[in-house]
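Sorry, any thoughts here?
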Amino acid sequence: MKMKNGFLSKLRSVFAGALATMVVAGAAHAQETSRLDELLSRGKLIVGVSSESPPFGFVDEKGELVGFDIDIAKLIAKATFGDETKVEFVRQSAAQRWPNAQNGTIDFGAQTTSIYADRAQKVAFTRSYIDGGVVMIVRKDAPFQKLADFNKSDVTIANLTTPTQEERAKRLFPSAQIATFDGIAAQFNAVKLGRAQGAQLDGPVAAWYVKQNPDMRVIEERLTDVVNTGIFMKPGDFRLWQYLDLTVSEMTGGYLFADYSKIYEKWFGTKPLNVKWYLNQPQK
């Protein structure tokens, strides 16, 4: 009986060792077949973007796809291949972001996407490459100085057709009137032309509109906290995630910062802060 038990014990040990080897080999194989290898072999990036979200991604008067996210993708292509043209853009709606990342239609997405815990259950995110968060934009000559000033029955707030903006407006401005629009441009124009007194816009979007329209301004008090905006991709590919995360790190505080800074200033009219906070301090 002892001999039999000893044999079974050795058999279990052999089986456990073989299983561990298979797990390690499987993990190694998964790493070897990273999407990073595929895109390097292909010689170009395939990037999901918006074509309806100025200034991040939109079609200009020449019919060309332009925007901050478009230039960010080109910068990643330049860092990867030494050529910013080595990128193919897939225009996708907000709803298509997660399926296209998960099924491999795109290598990754750069689509002004805020990082939230529920979204991180669907895709993998890099660290933030630009701050987000919602602000209120008004005409420069408007009397409003703080958010409480909008909670009046003779004030109209311009919203997008999103449940989030509707809930926020009803919660913060229960006495105000609500006007709903299908697009950001229509939302902005409602304020500019006086049909509404304020509009909820993402911070960088509002900055871009103010840059184009000196007769507009942003209320200093924010509607939401500052949120992070990340590049997203299919989860589970550590090598691709690490590569893109490191590239974002270099854009926001490393050797790519000069190029990133030019892109940022081009679209928002101000210079970005380096994530290495001490580099932002005035020189003595």
Summary: The chain has a mean pLDDT of 89. Residues 2-32 form the longest helix (31 residues). The CA atoms of residues 220 and 279 lie 25 Å apart. The two ends are 84 Å apart (CA to CA).
